[in-house]
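Handout for the seminar on molecular recognition.
Each group receives one record of this type.
Step one: identify the two inputs.
Step two: read the structure output and locate the region that could contact phosphoric acid mono(formamide)ester.
Step three: write two sentences on what you found, then compare them with the reference statements printed after the record.
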Amino acid sequence: MTTPRHFLQFSDCTADEFDYLFKRSTVIKGRFKAYERYWPLEDRTLVMIFEKASTRTRLSFEAGMHQLGGAAIYLNTRDSQLGRGEPVEDAAQVISRMSDIIMIRTYEQAIIDTFAKWSRVPVINGLTNEFHPCQILADIFTFIEHRGPIKGKTVAWVGDANNMCNTWLQAAKLLDFRLNVSTPAGYPLDPAVAGVTDTGCFEVFADPYDACRGADLVTTDVWTSMGFEAEGEARHKAFANWQVTDAMMSVAKPDALFMHCLPAHRGEEVAADVIDGKQSVVWDEAENRLHVQKALIEFLLLGRVDD
Ligand code: CP
Ligand code: NVA
């Protein structure tokens, strides 16, 4: 059995492969917009395992697999044996014998790493506590669509040093852009999680305004991620000054974009004026999950395709 290719972290692909994936996403998106049938994955099955809630991830993977001619099956912890303590190693061996590709949304990265180790087929990270690589794939594709190459640009991250922030950090190193990070005291970025030790690609700022100064893209996410709900009240207090406001956007470049992976909480991590304003590209960002993930699935199953 050959070892399958997985996408468990952003750093699982090279810069050259991302270049291919972004170009391929444009082709796949164009076909979708033109209502062209493209079924390279007829008879292939995607299994999606969710241990946390989702709207966009489930919908984009499920719709995407159908649009590629394949089938998608949804499993969750609540009504499968996964929630009753079946070992991850056993689940991976069984599920990967009945499917062609697997997407997992779970808690610790160690769970998906173990699953992938025992899987016969490619495994895609649909969000873990540590990373959200499919979202950053969509975010960078969205940036490229609006502003061209991201190389050399500056991305400001305001808020929690969470799975999104860790993934931005991996992307900054790989794709050669700068990441400015500002998080409240007590919630620092740990670059070791992303395995990024060289400080050349990122800088930490105590003041979120300083992180946004001159940025090409300002982005944020919820103050309390899934799995951390018990900390919600304390976080609400600590993060009060880390709301992306018009004033914060005004110190970024005049044509800076705003992104948020969604779901958003207006009046918490972002002001309504910003997310619903002219610089926001959040709806393109959400839609692009569909297109980039179709390109990713195709790549993991068929390799580079040029038709
Ligand atoms: N952005 C994102 O992953 O959304 P869902 O939680 O709805 O899947
Ligand atoms: N950081 C958020 C992202 C949700 C898509 C979470 O993990 O809950």
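Reference statements: Residues 54-57, 127, 135, 261-262 surround phosphoric acid mono(formamide)ester (ligand 1) (CB under 6 Å). The mean pLDDT is 97.
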